[in-house]
């Protein structure tokens, strides 16, 4: 029986039971899991990480700053310097070897006031440029381009200061000096040359006052003409005996310029004449000085000229768009633009082309005569100068010839130039005030046109010009050096006008080089 029980036990293992709860019957809490994890955690690794962390924290603390005293800076005040002894600079003689003219760069401003006389370059030169021939290379570039094609290089290697370059002897040089001296003596205190008020400056050259007042409406143009005469002899804003006079005149012109670029008011009928002449003077002044102030003024003045041109045409007194042109105004505009281009300023080639197209339109191809506002029309006359026969002069033909030459044409490619020159030879200068034959406006343009042509044309003109101009210059009283305003426009321009034009005519030998070369 017992053996059977053992056998059954071997076949069926005993099941061991316990009174403890089963594993799946016991609920494990957070603390039980924590204790179990801590029991199995690698304590040496945890300890090492904690020590490393503490090391980095402690090493980041700036222990050397604790207890440090602030740095003390001691400043020692230097003893005051004794005042420097006063030196009157006017009594100090500065000796330089090979002195170089100093050019100060002025600040650009919108308007001009009395303080701007110091904006131009100072120069210690007091030599009269007329006393010795000055090499042109020191003053100017050799060529002037006025566009391409028909407006090819005109080579106006002008602005050559000093006499003697093809000059007509000491007589004309002395006349130039005397003419400039009269202009300088009769410049107003504000820097302008006044047609009506110039006599207020009489007394420096002689006791008797000057006669021959003009109109005050054209002081801008008269100031431009006087400046051109001074600039033509080499006096500029930074060189020459008459440097201060040039600076004062230029500053006055700039003070008359408004924001449109126009120089002078537009109150007179012929204000565009004044603007054109003033622009020419400012461009030539900039040519010499290269002063930024003058560059800005010249560019604005040139811009105004280009804006008031008739579309596809030339210029007249009135606003553009009316299609009304005239040769006299157009000539001044062409010369102002040509001078601007020579000075390196921007010029619209269409304006020059329009001017030349107008000259072509009013030129009679058979005779070479150039009309005023249409082909065949003589020079303008007003009720005030109707007694001066327009047929005795060829002023507009001279304007046309000079315009063509300055714009690159030659007698070889433009026969009208040679034919027009023949007309000028038939109407040579002659001082005949009683016959109303003294047309100084014509003589000025004719002198420059015939000088450019040279050869027989210039010889004939020069022989007549010397007795008509040099021999008639005043040598008495305060009028010494001037010319009586006996021409058709003398009552408008007055003595300033006639003196500036005749001085410019005598400067023809060295104001512009011959474009066409020796003929």
Which descriptors would you attach to this protein?
Glycosyltransferase, 42% helix
Provide a brief overview of the structure.
The chain has helices spanning 2-11, 30-40, 43-59, 170-185, 219-232, 243-255, 271-289, 292-307, 327-342, 349-361, 395-406, 415-425, 440-453, 455-469, 490-506, 508-511. The chain is mainly alpha-helical and 519 residues long. It has a domain at 143-381 and 391-511: Glycosyltransferase (Alpha/alpha barrel), CATH 1.50.10.20.
Describe the protein.
This protein is mostly helical. The chain has a domain at 143-381 and 391-511: Alpha/alpha barrel (Glycosyltransferase). The chain is built from 16 helices and no strands. It has helices at 2-11, 30-40, 43-59, 170-185, 219-232, 243-255, 271-289, 292-307, 327-342, 349-361, 395-406, 415-425, 440-453, 455-469, 490-506, 508-511. Helix 5 runs parallel beside helix 7 (271-289) and helix 11 packs parallel to helix 13. The protein is elongated, with a radius of gyration of 45 Å.
């Amino acid at each position: 029986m017992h053996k059977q029980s053992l056998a059954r036990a071997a076949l069926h293992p005993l099941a061991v039971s316990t009174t403890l709860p089963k594993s799946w019957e016991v609920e494990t809490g957070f603390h039980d899991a924590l204790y179990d994890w801590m029991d199995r955690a690698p304590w040496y690794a945890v300890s090492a990480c904690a020590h490393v962390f503490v090391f980095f924290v402690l090493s980041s603390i700036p222990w050397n700053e604790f207890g440090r005293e602030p740095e003390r800076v001691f400043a020692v005040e230097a003893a005051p310097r004794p005042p420097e002894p006063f030196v009157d600079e006017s009594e100090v003689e500065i000796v330089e070897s090979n002195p170089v003219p100093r050019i100060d760069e002025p600040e650009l401003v919108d308007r001009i006031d009395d303080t701007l006389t110091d904006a131009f370059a100072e120069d210690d030169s007091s030599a009269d440029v007329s006393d010795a021939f000055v090499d042109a290379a020191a003053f100017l570039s050799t060529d002037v381009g006025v566009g391409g094609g028909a407006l090819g290089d005109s080579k106006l290697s002008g602005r050559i200061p000093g006499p003697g370059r093809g000059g007509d002897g000491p007589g004309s040089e002395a006349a130039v000096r005397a003419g400039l001296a009269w202009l300088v003596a009769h410049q107003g205190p504000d820097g302008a040359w006044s047609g009506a008020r110039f006599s207020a400056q009489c007394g420096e050259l002689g006791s008797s006052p000057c006669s021959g007042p003009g109109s005050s409406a054209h002081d801008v143009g008269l100031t431009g003409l006087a400046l051109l005469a001074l600039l033509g002899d080499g006096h500029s804003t930074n060189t020459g005996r008459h440097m201060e006079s040039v600076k004062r005149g230029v500053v006055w012109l700039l003070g008359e310029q408004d924001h449109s670029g126009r120089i002078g008011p537009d109150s007179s009928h012929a204000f565009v004449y004044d603007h054109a002449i003033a622009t020419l003077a400012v461009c030539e002044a900039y040519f010499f000085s290269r002063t930024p102030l003058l560059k800005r003024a010249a560019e604005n003045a040139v811009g105004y000229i280009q804006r008031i041109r008739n579309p596809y045409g030339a210029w007249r007194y009135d606003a553009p768009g009316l299609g009304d042109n005239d040769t006299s105004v157009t000539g001044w505009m062409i010369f102002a633009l040509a001078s601007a281009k020579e000075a390196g300023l921007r010029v619209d080639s269409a304006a020059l082309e329009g001017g030349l197209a107008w000259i072509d339109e009013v030129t009679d191809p058979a005779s070479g005569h150039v009309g005023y506002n249409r082909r065949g029309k003589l020079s303008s006359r007003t009720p005030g100068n109707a007694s001066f026969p327009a047929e005795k002069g060829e002023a507009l033909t001279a304007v046309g010839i000079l315009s063509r030459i300055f714009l690159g044409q030659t007698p070889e490619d433009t026969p009208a130039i040679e034919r027009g020159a023949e007309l000028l030879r038939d109407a040579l200068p002659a001082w005949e005030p009683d016959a109303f034959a003294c047309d100084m406006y014509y003589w000025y343009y004719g002198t420059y046109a015939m000088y450019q042509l040279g050869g027989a044309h210039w010889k004939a003109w020069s022989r007549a010009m010397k007795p008509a101009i040099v021999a008639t210059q005043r040598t008495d009283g305060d009028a010494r050096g001037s010319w009586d305003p006996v021409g058709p426009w003398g009552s408008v321009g007055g003595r300033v006008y006639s003196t500036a034009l005749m001085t410019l005519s005598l400067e023809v030998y060295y104001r512009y080089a011959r474009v066409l070369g020796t003929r």
